[in-house]
Amino acid sequence: MRWSLSICLLIAFFSFQPLKAAEENRPLVMASNTIIADIAHQLIGDEARVISLVPLGTDPHNFDPSPADLKLSTEADLILVNGMNLENWMVNLIKKTGSTAKIDTVTKGIQPIFTGKFYTQVDPHAWLDPILGKTYARNISASLSDLLPKHKETIQFNLKVYLDLLEEVHQYSLERLKEIPQKKRLLITSHDAFRYFGERYEISVKSVLASSPDAELTVKDMIQLTEIIKNSEVGAIFPESTINPKLVNQIAKDNNLIVGGQLYTDSLSEPEKDAGNYIQMLYHNVNRIAEALLGERQKAEYDLWKSDFSDTLMSLGILVFLAACFLWMWFNVKTQHGG
Q: Residue 7 falls within a domain, yes or no?
């Protein structure tokens, strides 16, 4: 019996070795955030190990790499970065590790939108526009094709399919957002991330914080935002998944706004949720924005409350009826005994 168990363990061990070797032999593609990593994975599949240096749900603006991250960067064959001053910490990472990986910027060809007086003040969130998402996909496919020329045909096929999916998102977004009246076409979010989205779909954008979530909110900023809200017919403000919603909730309370659905800007969600990949994230965001600005979310909450209230009234009515029946029976029994 012991010999049999030992043989089984040996067979399992040596059977695992080719799998482990195959895993380690695949090139390592490291992306600076989950969105870029997902696009790369959709294009290359399992022909490469694709990872995001910044974990799910983490803000990539001021990420602090761990020693394990530093080690991982030395193993990478290709590093994909957004650029537009999003990953300034990446420069220090490369210097510290001396990584020899090829570094490609996936926003090449995209005209940046400046958000302040200085050239460093740029909105880096071009991926929130699905048309610009096509540029991401094309740039990433070119980088992957250079890394894995044997799989270039597969990458190009996947790219074509992916570009079609992004076009479908764009057309859907046009249809969904055109219903919003002009006076309500104002998108207020946690931080300044929707400039490209707003420009594409002709929606004004304002934010509680600047492009970087660690920016400080001044009294002047609050006064200006309050005035904008008062002078518009906007009814919602939106929190974001990687930013504490406390400030957004307070502004909503002070200005009688509803809190729209949580938007995903700097990170995807867990795979099982609504924004588990880049395409799903785009659909999720446009639906939450349209629902809140059109009042559908408020109506849905009211309908749910009305339904719950009706159910409660029905339950109370049944209880009152049963109580009345019980009292009637008790009264009859008491009368008969008394008689």
A: no
